[in-house]
Design goal:
Elements lengths: L4 E5 L5 H14 L11 H10 L6 E6 L2 E10 L9 E8 L8 H15 L4 E7 L3 H9 L3 E12 L2 E11 L1
Parallel strand pairs: 4-5
Antiparallel strand pairs: 1-2, 2-3, 3-4, 5-7, 6-7
The chain binds coenzyme A.
């Protein structure tokens, strides 16, 4: 199903397609605890932050951008510099077809090649698809943060999953 899939680094030309995919998740799900959609200006800053070592891989299916996966700094203090946090978002039309697994696997391999030591994922605890996805790619559950977030008038527990690269 994912035969014509290309995984490649993000470019500035991907700004609108990645913003659309991300904002759909902001407005319809707890996959991200952002509440307001990202403006073009906000998202342009995010793009600039993901053109270098904090890489973003874009999934292109039959020439259309259908998803992306990125790493970001885990925490700003210098002692955490070897640790990254991943994010992954697909267009709803292509979910459940194995693209997320391929994208995350490739992201983790790239992060290891770049010299990072470990990758953390914060996942809404009842998001079983994302937890399965991360487990398939070698992440293990290392804890659950109770009622750490709030969205759509409910408290959100976060599962913390980790993979040593
Ligand atoms: C989460 C997401 C990245 C997963 O990518 P995907 O391509 O849809 O997932 P895959 O097809 O690679 O499947 C990953 C696992 O989830 C399972 N899965 C996928 N879709 C499912 C569904 N609708 N119901 C139940 N299980 C499902 C797969 O079976 C697989 O697990 P398994 O191999 O143990 O069976 C994607 O669905 C997505 O972008 N969702 C919206 C944004 C989001 O939630 N991002 C993650 C934030 S933490």
């Amino acid at each position: 199903m994912a035969d014509d899939l290309i995984l490649r680094p993000l470019t500035r030309a991907d700004a609108e397609s990645t913003r659309r995919i991300y904002n759909h998740a902001v407005l319809t799900s707890t996959a991200t605890l952002d509440i307001e959609p990202r403006t073009p200006t906000d998202h342009a800053r995010w793009v600039e932050d993901h053109l270098g070592i904090y890489v973003c891989l874009v999934a292109e299916l039959n020439g259309a951008v259908v998803g992306f996966a990125s790493i970001s700094p885990y925490r700003p203090r210098a002692g955490y510099a070897s640790t990254v946090e991943d994010s992954i978002y697909l267009d709803p039309s292509v979910q459940g077809r194995g693209i997320g697994t391929r994208l995350l696997r490739s992201l983790v391999e790239t992060a290891a090649e770049l010299g990072f030591h470990t990758c953390i994922a914060h996942i809404v605890a009842d998001h079983h698809v994302s937890r399965s996805l991360h487990a398939n790619v070698g992440f293990e559950l290392v804890g659950v943060q109770r009622e750490i977030g709030r969205k759509f008038s409910r408290w959100i527990d976060l599962a913390i999953m980790q993979r040593l690269l």
